[in-house]
Write a structure and sequence with these properties.
Helices cover 23% and strands 33% of the residues. The chain is of the alpha+beta class. The protein has 3 domains: 3-159, Lipocalin; 179-183 and 225-485, Alpha/Beta hydrolase fold, catalytic domain (Rossmann fold); 491-558. An 8-stranded antiparallel barrel has the order 2-3-4-6-7-8-9-10. An 8-stranded mixed sheet has the order 11-12-14-13-15-16-17-20, with helices on both faces. Strands 5, 21, 22, 24 and 25 form a 5-stranded mixed sheet that branches. Helix 4 packs across helix 6 (327-337).
Length: 560
């Protein structure tokens, strides 16, 4: 056996002796009862008992490793810092369960005349030993020599933490799931004229005159939505609700522009609902106002129904997103911001509350509270910007700068129709640009994409084909919603247990931990026990995993 090999093996063994002696002297324990030696073996090797230098050729100890173990029942950490052919240096850290920091005791080991000598704090102690090694554990006994000879039992395991894995996922950002469509789910019923009229004919004047006779006497209507549910194993999904456009006169939940988005977002992991609502009005301003009010009632009813049946449809009601186009966007904005206290004056003037019921209580009997996370406004408008004050939420808006149907900034709908029809039949409204500026003044997260030179509903060609604007809007909606899905999970230091660090979300999964400047003693998934080295330059704890929706998070705790 080479001289170099013997020296390296000798130095590795001495490190353990150093730590054990330091702990016994520092803690001042009485002489323990003698115990039978414990040999810790692993599947890849058999323990080897060492009693002298001539046996070192079959022992390996990695000087980069920490060893975590106990001496006479007391926990401690051992670390080798330096080794040469003449001496070895290291640190020994006794662990106190009432503290989250461990202080180092520096030591030096060197050969003596008749025994190995351990030196620390100006003292040297002779020792003899019997130690069992295997690749991942060390155990045995060490006896201090002299008048106060003591025998000490110890066992160490090499401390290895799993490599830190920062969680990643493309869920909600890329299509990856098949889905099941559940058509015609009834969410309510109410009196009205109709709730579906697909725009199969571009002769709108002809269709209007065909429908006008039906606006004389309202009838009982069942209200339906189509549901798109991802075929995955998740128990909860965010909910995305879409409201079609059509001037409160035409349109259907199955329109191609709604259907394509429903399928795309379901493939990304959302539960998606496309909702039909009451439409139709007589040729009067009051009738148009009532129609808009009832549409908002129905949107509320659809949201309440879905929240009440969240478990059946695997919906997380804390993550609801709403979007609409044209009349559907006016309805969506009213659903998000209007309430029974801030309704426009025409609600009181026309006694709509008495005629139709409260805004949040029509069309079904469900009374679940609803909270919308974010909204996509596509060429919509709002009656009064101050409606936003009560519950501002993130909004992304798209609007053609040449829209003559719904005002881009501020004005009356159908402003291009001759004879001031827009002013006579509709209320003055605030369009997407005004909404954007107002949200900015409230410091509410929002994005606005003015579509230069475009008119109303610029995402479809005259023949109904979807164009580049449609896919642009889809991409931007998806990007805008995603931050609202990101977990608000916090990493906290326990107030009563100094070694305990916890995530405040018990439903987080696939959590990975990393302690820089310390060791993780225990890992329970969503919590860890950590000790910090006093001599480390910084203390940093990282945690990464997925929230209950499957969205990645990363949190850090620092104590610099």
């Amino acid at each position: 056996m080479s001289i170099k090999r013997k020296i390296l093996l000798f130095l590795s063994l001495v490190v353990l002796i150093t730590g054990v002696i330091c702990l016994c002297k520092k803690c001042g324990h009485d002489k323990p009862k003698e115990q039978t030696e414990t040999i810790i073996t692993h599947s890849d090797s058999t323990g080897v008992e060492i009693t002298g230098l001539e046996q070192f050729d079959c022992v390996k100890v990695n000087t980069l490793d920490y060893f975590l173990g106990k001496v006479n029942g007391r926990p401690c950490v051992l670390k080798l810092d330096f080794a040469s052919s003449t001496q070895i240096q290291g640190k020994f850290y006794p662990i106190d369960s009432t503290r989250n920091t461990v202080s180092p005791t520096a030591f030096t080991i060197r050969p003596g005349d008749n025994a190995y000598l351990f030196s620390y704090n100006g003292k040297s102690v002779p020792v003899e030993f019997t130690i069992t090694f295997d690749p991942a554990a060390i155990s045995g006994t060490i006896t201090t020599l002299g008048e106060e000879s003591r025998k000490h039992q110890f066992a160490f395991d090499r401390h290895r933490e799993p490599a830190f894995q920062e969680a990643t996922s493309t869920r909600y950002r890329e299509p990856q799931y098949s889905f099941t469509k559940i058509p015609d789910v009834q969410y309510g019923h109410a009196k009205g004229f109709w709730s579906s009229y697909p725009m199969e004919d571009e002769n709108y004047t002809k269709m209007i005159f065909e429908l006008l006779p039906q606006t004389v006497i309202p009838k009982k209507l069942n209200l339906y939505l189509d549901l798109y549910v991802p075929d995955d194993s998740a128990q909860r999904h965010p909910l995305f609700v879409l409201l079609h456009g059509g001037a409160f006169f035409f349109g259907d939940k199955g329109n191609i522009n709604m259907r394509e988005w429903c399928e795309h977002f379901a493939q990304c992991g959302y539960v998606v609902a496309s909702v039909n609502y009451r439409m139709g009005f007589a040729i009067s301003k009051a009738s148009i106002q009532q129609c808009g009010y009832q549409a908002i009632q129905d949107a509320h009813a659809a949201l309440r129904y879905l929240a009440a049946n969240a478990e059946e449809y695997h919906i997380d009601p804390d993550y609801i997103f709403l979007a609409g186009t044209s009349a559907g966007s006016i309805t969506a904005l009213g659903t998000a911001f209007m309430n029974n206290e801030n309704c426009p004056p025409f609600v009181t003037k026309n006694k709509l509350t008495k005629k139709c019921g409260l805004l949040h209580a029509g069309s079904n009997e469900f009374r679940n509270p609803i909270k919308i996370k974010a909204l996509a406004n596509m060429w919509g408008a709002i009656y009064d910007l101050h409606e936003i004050d009560g519950h501002p939420i993130p909004v992304i808006s798209f609007h053609g700068t040449n829209d003559q149907v719904v005002p881009f900034d501020h004005g009356f709908p159908f402003s291009s129709v001759k004879g001031n029809v827009g002013e006579m039949m509709f209320d003055e409204m605030y369009g997407s640009q005004s909404i954007h500026h107002y949200l900015d003044s409230l410091h509410v997260r929002n994005r606005f994409y003015p579509l230069e030179g475009c008119g109303h509903a610029p995402y479809q060609e005259k023949g109904g084909a979807l164009n580049d604007h449609y896919w642009f809007i889809q991409k931007k909606m998806q990007e805008f919603f995603y931050p609202e899905l990101m977990p608000k999970i916090k990493l906290k230091h326990d107030d009563h247990d100094s070694q305990l660090y916890c995530l405040d979300d018990e439903e987080a999964t696939q959590v990975s931990w990393q302690a820089e400047g310390g060791l993780i003693l225990e890992n329970s998934g969503n919590s860890v026990r950590v000790i910090w080295f006093d001599d480390a330059p910084k203390h940093l704890l990282r945690a990464s995993g997925l929230n209950a929706l499957g969205v990645p998070f990363k949190q850090e705790w620092k104590n610099c």
